[in-house]
């Protein structure tokens, strides 16, 4: 069985909707025309025509003219003709003809005919299409007792009604219903694309393949299959890069340990101290590289973590080291979902970064619109506007040296961004009023249990 593409499917849906509207309008027209012949709205008009026919039978020529003139108005035009008009009663109006005979007490041998005729712009011909009902008129022909014929053309509000609704309003309602059904069908066809977009967004945050079920049109299935394969390849590349970086860092740490042991066996001196400092810097760099590798490809955790408790732990640890750190907003629990170790790393990197550049850090916690807010501020030199996005890139530093005393290797904020985005949050560098830097982390709060 051949499968249609998404463009062909949407075109078929629109065409099917148009055909459905036409079929519904035809069905409504047929039903409404059937009701025309038997519904109460025609009863007063038929009674008026029947009464006029009785008067014509009872009056002479002079009185007939006066009765015709008295009953005539723009929506009701009667006249008497000598020859029988060529009027054929449609099947749907036959019940109305029987009703008219009854009202006028006509003998069975007297001719009676009813028809709906279109407006003058359409040539006064019988109504054949639904659109010709607009401005249509009722034509009634009754044979009088003297052999002449009473012809009445009745216009005005003859709009056919179904369930009390005008045909125009009813057609609009039916068209709206069909349009809604078409939109549902189009939504069903485009839903795989929406699912694909959501999966790609989740993959970008977690770097874990988000497989999407292949369904829909063939071209949509092809796109979904290609994206699924691409996710797997990207995940393998990132995993391989992480393994290689971790292996190199691990081996470097082994060699650094050996060098440190050899330095301990050498006599003390200025060169030994410099070498020991270099080894410390190299070890810190390796630790940062390992942390970056772990943050680049780590499975998301669904554990409930108290961010306030993590901030208090980091605050107490820094105070024990003699650092100038303040903490506010950590009195009440502030729960998020994620890895406790990873979020502790975020707090440590942000506080450490502030201490390295400004000698002090101010930590603040807050709840804001369903998010947990962790803000670390300092009174250091700040981050220039043009470099606020670049500071989160690997190995980028506002101060270009690699001296750890002036800020480190440039992986701290990169690790923060990797962890925060992996937890569905955001991190941004902002201005602090009065000078300095402000780094703000927003994480989704854990949903509170029911009750």
UniProtKB/TrEMBL annotation:
Gene3D superfamilies: 1.10.287.130, Histidine kinase-like ATPase, C-terminal domain. Its EC number is 2.7.13.3. The chain crosses the membrane at residues 6-31, 167-186. The keyword Phosphoprotein applies. It catalyses: ATP + protein L-histidine = ADP + protein N-phospho-L-histidine. The keyword Transferase applies. It is an enzyme of class 2 (transferase). GO terms for molecular function: ATP binding; phosphorelay sensor kinase activity. It is a multi-pass membrane protein. Residues 247-447 form the Histidine kinase domain. SUPFAM superfamilies: ATPase domain of HSP90 chaperone/DNA topoisomerase II/histidine kinase (SSF55874), Homodimeric domain of signal transducing histidine kinase (SSF47384). It is found in: Cell membrane. Its main location: membrane. InterPro entries: 2C_sensor_his_kinase, HAMP_dom, HATPase_C_sf, HATPase_dom, His_kinase_dom, HisK_dim/P_dom, HisK_dim/P_sf, Sig_transdc_His_kin-like_C. Residues 187-239 form the HAMP domain. One of its GO terms (cellular component) is plasma membrane. Keywords: ATP-binding, Cell membrane, Kinase, Membrane, Nucleotide-binding, Phosphoprotein, Transferase, Transmembrane, Transmembrane helix. This is histidine kinase. It comes from Xanthobacter tagetidis.
